[in-house]
Write a structure and sequence with these properties.
This protein is an alpha/beta fold and 696 residues long. The protein has a 7-stranded parallel beta sheet, sandwiched between helices. α6 (198-205) packs across α7 (219-245) and α8 packs across α11 (327-344). It is globular, with a radius of gyration of 31 Å.
């Protein structure tokens, strides 16, 4: 896609290799730390400061404090033993200071610190062996160059192999190239907030004068955070407006098929299912395309809602498709939907990458001639060979596993296709706005009748033997249990080892009643192990977090999570959601290792107190901040460099309203402010949103 980035931004999107001190080796380090362009260094803000303003006499310099001292160089004491340091004795009128250098070059130090000369040195004071020392001063300059030492120095997040001095110089050089951009904020709003311009705010954020200036709530950091949030909200609003302008079609079925399915259900629809269906049917009936997110906690009945929505399209003479992220999940949807589809008398099929050639050919023919009404599948659905007679409705399950382009690829298989996106990962309201602002939103907040609450207990790991004995008693009575093994420390490569060790121990005790599943297994092996557990041939399934989404075994009533303190709240909630799916009482045991951090204790307590995924998601955001929540990169959530959703939630709401107002007044962004806002979108690399203006 050719970018039409404004010329004023060209310097900011130049490669970091053009900066002083950043050759090919350092460029790789800078890229892994911040990013490949100058603009990435602008967003790489300091996280602490070194204050060099304190300049006492030598004997008044306190232990451990960073000081800047003016001293006379008295003598050099080189070391002939490489293991011992090179020392330089200095003094002022109050006493002596020893400068200490390890692995030093004598000729270099003699030039830097000539005997008899005055030097200004800055670094941390240590008291050692009766001496006042400073090891490897950060700065050593002649008296006349004392002003070159930054009295308050920003400290940036670092990576191994890159020196703070090199990074600091590169950031300063990037800042020097930053242009003064046209103002995109509303003048009255900016004045009310007492915010400086974009460039002034950026420079101030990189030059903090005290600890307080590092807070996300300072005026300069709030201004920068708002710019980023506004770019996000404006981009989503533009994409949504473009979607609305695309020709859709009114879809309204006669209701007969849906009545048959509702009659065949073993339970009544919940109030929130009824509400969500009302919203979906209204969207489908409207002449524009539907683009709606259905959020529902594990076990809240999203699949039934999706089926009824798809049947609305089938009743209107069209076809529907449901895309799941894994073959296992696609086949599970098929297993739960097929009996209901039969009750309604409609033709349903599965399409995945591992179908036999003859089955695949039959399915493709059925989709092309319209004899298959509903298809469930994986990414295989949007391959070129897949043609529909008339695709009216597409459902995407676990949206965060797919990109927006995959959503569009599936929609391109039909004309004016209505789109329903589903997720079982409860998303806090603020993150909803940043990630799914281009979608309307429905929530399922109740569980179907007959579901039992899960009894969650927190148990120390030292009681693991008791836990295993308890599981033995339960499986003797026919119970089925999951045993989830811990996420390993980052130094290890995989959590497979922990799962295999636990499997070996349990299998030695319970024989072939134990099955194992982990991410490194071949798909066929994984499916076999899951099937043994689902059918009851195995009663204990030892697993890594691969079972987090999409395994539906209503007979499983026990969940053991080993080292639960290593998991995030969202993940613990997803794992616990694998049980409590049938009518029997279920128990979740959170085994924890000592010592527990405060945050880990808080997470486990929340799990004990509530099963409400939305409450848990909000708490998770509170405890961990948006950056870590759900594992941003995996979840399809936008990554913010300057905004902190936990701290800037109020600014996000303002940005959303601002974006709506901007597009209501100037939908093509043609005014002076509109042009400045286009620059803002390109600055934060929301190029796709600007391109929708041209294509829309």
């Amino acid at each position: 896609m050719r970018t039409l980035r404004p010329q004023i931004l060209f310097p900011l999107f130049a490669a970091v290799t053009g900066l002083p001190g950043i050759g090919p080796r350092n460029a790789k380090l800078v890229e892994s730390l911040a990013g490949p362009h100058l603009v990435d260094l602008l967003w790489h803000l300091p996280r602490e400061i070194v204050d060099r303003r304190y300049s006492p006499k030598i004997t008044e310099a306190p232990e451990g404090r960073v000081v800047t001292l003016t001293v006379k160089v008295d003598a050099h004491f080189p070391s002939h033993d490489k293991r011992k340091p090179y020392k330089v004795r200095c003094s002022d009128d109050s006493g002596f200071l020893t400068l200490v250098f390890f692995h030093a070059r004598g000729d270099y130090l003699e030039r830097l610190l000539p005997v008899g000369e005055t030097r200004v040195v800055s670094g941390r004071i240590e008291h050692f062996g009766g001496e006042i020392q400073m090891a490897h001063p950060d700065h050593i300059v002649p008296l006349e160059e004392a002003d070159s030492i930054r009295r308050v120095e920003p400290v940036y997040p670092m990576t191994a192999g890159l020196s703070p001095k090199t990074l600091g110089k590169a950031v300063a050089a990037a800042l020097a190239k930053a242009p003064d951009l046209p103002e995109w904020l509303d003048p009255a709003f900016r004045q009310k907030r007492h915010w400086a311009s974009w460039l002034e705010s950026l420079r101030a954020a990189h030059a903090p004068e005290e600890e307080g200036a590092l807070s996300p709530l300072t005026r300069m950091r709030e201004r920068l955070a708002y710019d980023e949030l506004l770019a996000n909200q404006l981009a989503l609003a533009l994409i949504r407006a473009t979607q609305r302008r695309l020709p859709g079609r009114s879809v309204a079925g006669h209701g007969a098929l849906r009545e048959k399915v509702i009659a065949a259900l073993p339970f009544s629809l919940t109030t929130s299912q009824e509400t969500a269906l009302g919203e979906i049917y209204a969207d489908m009936k409207a002449p524009s395309r539907m683009l709606r997110l259905l959020q529902g906690d594990v076990g809240s009945g999203k699949t039934v809602v999706a089926l009824l929505a798809m049947l609305n399209a089938v009743e209107a003479g069209g076809q529907a498709a449901l895309m799941a992220p894994t073959e296992l999940l696609a086949r599970q949807h098929y297993a739960s939907i097929a009996p209901l589809a039969r009750a309604a008398g409609i033709e349903i099929a599965v399409l995945t990458g591992r179908d036999k050639a003859a089955d695949r050919r039959r399915t493709l023919e059925g989709l092309a001639d319209g004899s298959i009404d509903v298809v469930l599948g994986t990414h295989a659905l949007f391959q070129e060979s897949v043609e529909f007679k008339d695709l009216m409705m597409a459902v995407i399950d676990e949206q965060h596993r797919f990109g927006v382009h995959q959503r569009l690829d599936l929609a391109a298989k039909g004309r004016g296709v209505d789109m329903l996106v589903m997720t079982a990962t409860p998303i806090p309201r603020t993150l909803m706005l940043t990630a799914y602002g281009d979608l309307e939103n429905s929530r399922l907040t109740e569980k179907p009748p007959g579901r039992q609450p899960v009894d969650t207990r927190i148990v120390p790991l030292i009681r693991i033997e008791e836990t295993i004995e308890g599981i033995g008693r339960a499986i003797a009575k026919g119970a089925r249990a999951y045993w989830v093994c811990p996420l390993v420390s980052e130094s290890e490569v995989t959590d497979m080892a922990a799962a295999e060790a636990r499997y070996a121990e349990l299998a030695a005790r319970f024989g072939d009643r134990v099955a194992l599943v982990h991410g490194q297994m071949k798909p066929a092996e994984k499916d076999t192990a899951m099937l043994r557990f689902a059918e009851g041939a195995a009663q204990i399934l030892v697993a890594t977090t691969v079972i987090e989404v999409g395994i539906d075994v209503p007979e499983a009533t026990i969940m053991v999570i080993e080292h639960a303190e290593r998991f995030g709240l969202a993940q613990l909630h997803q794992l616990r959601g694998r049980i409590g799916r049938g009518a029997a009482a279920s128990t979740c045991l959170l085994l924890y290792g000592q010592p527990l951090t405060e945050a880990a204790r808080a997470r486990l307590e929340i799990m004990r107190q509530t099963e409400d995924g939305f409450v848990i998601a909000e708490k998770d955001l509170e405890l961990r901040g948006a950056g870590e929540l759900l594992g941003v990169r995996q979840s399809g959530m936008p990554e913010f460099r300057l905004a902190d959703i936990g701290m800037h939630g109020e600014l996000l709401a303002v940005a959303r309203d601002d974006a709506k107002l901007i597009l209501a007044r100037d939908p093509e962004l043609k005014s002076d402010r509109g042009q400045a806002l286009k620059t803002l979108l390109y600055l934060f690399e929301r190029d796709a949103a600007v391109l929708t203006l041209r294509s829309g």
